[in-house]
Amino acid sequence: MSLPLVFDAPKRALPPRHLADLDPTERRSAVAELGLPGFRADQLARHYFGRLCADPDAMTDLPVAARESLRSLLPPLVQPVLEQTCDGGATRKTLWKAHDGTRAESVLMRYPDRATVCVSSQAGCGMACPFCATGQGGLQRNLSTAEIVEQVRQAAVAARDGALGVPMRLSNIVFMGMGEPLANYQRVVAAVRRITEPAPAGLGISARGVTVSTVGLVPAIDKLAGEGLPVTLAVSLHTPDDELRDTLVPVNNRWKVAEVLAAARRYAVTTGRRVSIEYALIRDVNDQPWRADLLGQRLAREIGRKRVHVNLIPLNPTPGSEWDASPRPVQDEFVRRVQAAGIACTVRDTRGQEIAAACGQLAATGA
After folding, report:
1. Binding site residues for S-adenosyl-L-methionine, as ranges?
2. Are residues 62 and 189 in the same domain?
3. What number is the average pLDDT over the span 298-321?
4. Are residues 285 and 194 in the same domain?
5. Choosing from 86, 105, 243, 333, which is the catalytic residue?
6. Is there a single domain that holds both residue 24 and residue 150?
7. CA dist., res. 152 & res. 158, Å (int)
8. Which of 73, 92, 150, 181 could cross-link 108 (Cys pair, CB 3.0–4.6 Å)?
C-alpha cells in the first residue's frame, strides 16, 4: 500500500513580512507605507542583498529615525539553534528555529572550486519517501520566501567570513534540504529570483549555480520550465521501474516514471539545461545490475544522452533505519553500466556522515 502524500502544507501562520518576500516595486510601496521616500527601499536592499547586512544599526548611511522605521522590514526569521562541523571544517550544518518553533536545516560545504549551500524549502516533507529522514517526520509547513533567502544570505556571510576555513564567495545553491521544493512552488520560485537577481534587487548569484530538486511533480516541472530561470532541475528518481518506485517514491502512484522522464526532457529542451537524475543507491533494493542497465537505456531513449546526467548518491543511513548504502564494488558496477549506455554518471561526494547530515536528522533530534 502506498503512503499518503501531502501537497498542501498544514495551515500555519507564516512569519512577518520581510524585505526578501518583496520584489523591488513592493519594497518601495512598503517603505512608502512607513512614511519614507522610495529611495530608502533601494538603500535597504543594497545593505541586505549587496552587503549581506541585516542589522539596521550597522546601516550608518541611513538616518537613525529611518533605521528604526525600516527595522520592521527585517524581522528575525530563522535563528541557529545548533551548528556542527566536520570534514576538517569543510562541512557546516545548521539547524534553524523559525518564529513559530518549527525547525529546518541547511548545510554549507566547501569544495576546491566553490562554496555550496543546501537549503530547505519546507519544515518537514509530505512526500513520505521511506528512506528519507525528513519524509519520516511528515510536513509541518511551507517556508516563506524570506526564510529560504535568509538561509542563503546567512550561508553567504559564513562563507565570506571564513567559517569553512578560508574566506569564500558562495556560488552554488541547491534546493535539496528538507521538503519538496515544487510543493512550495510560488515561494521557491520567488526565492530563486531573489537569489539570482543582481544587487540590489537580489543576491546576484548566477542562476546556473542554482539547482532545484523534485521527486517528480510533473505539472510543476512544466511550469518551472516556463519561468525563464536557467536553473538546473534535479529529479529524484531512485529507480527506473514503476513497481519499485511506487514504494520508494510514493508520488509515483500519481505520475509514473515515463511521465516524469517526459517532463524532464521538456525541461531540458525548453531551458537548454542538462537535467540531473538523483539516484540514492540502497543496498539490495535498487542497486541491481539490471536496474543500472534499464536506467541508462531509459534515460538515453526518453530524455537524450546529452540532456541528462546521473548523480549517484551513496545512501546516508538514518539511525534505526533498515536502509543501508550499497557496497563500493556494487556502486562501481552500477556506474559502469550506466556509463556504458552513454549516460554521464558520477558519484556524489559523501559529506557529513558524522554530523547527521542526511536531511531531517538534526530536526528529528528535537534540539
Report:
1. 179-180, 213, 236-238, 316
2. no
3. 91
4. yes
5. 105
6. no
7. 10
8. 92
| Residue-level pLDDT at 5 | 58
- Binding site for [4Fe-4S] cluster: residue ranges? 125, 129, 132
Mean local confidence (pLDDT), 328-344: 98
| 8 A C-beta contact, residue 337 and residue 289 | yes
Q: Respond yes or no: is residue 105 known to be catalytic.
A: yes
pTM equals 0.93
Domain that holds residue 60: 19-73
Determine the Cα–Cα distance for residues 19 and 136; give it in Å rounded to an integer.
Answer: 33
Residue 105 lies in a domain: yes
Active site residue 33: no
Residues of each annotated binding site: 125, 129, 132, 179-180, 213, 236-238, 316
At residue 327 the predicted structure's pLDDT band, cuts being 50, 70 and 90, is very high
The active-site residue out of 118, 150, 345, 359 is 359
Q: Tens digit of pLDDT for each residue in 34-62?
A: 999 999 999 999 999 999 999 999 999 99
The CATH number given to whatever domain includes residue 185 is 3.20.20.70
What CATH number is associated with residue 35? 1.10.150.530
Compute the mean pLDDT over every residue in the chain, rounded to the nearest whole number: 92
Indicate the helix (H) or strand (E) that contains 172: strand 170-175
Residue 110 domain flag: yes
* Residue 95: pLDDT over 70: yes
Grid cell locating 325: 548504502
The owner of cell 529507480 is 239
At residue 2, the pLDDT reads: 40
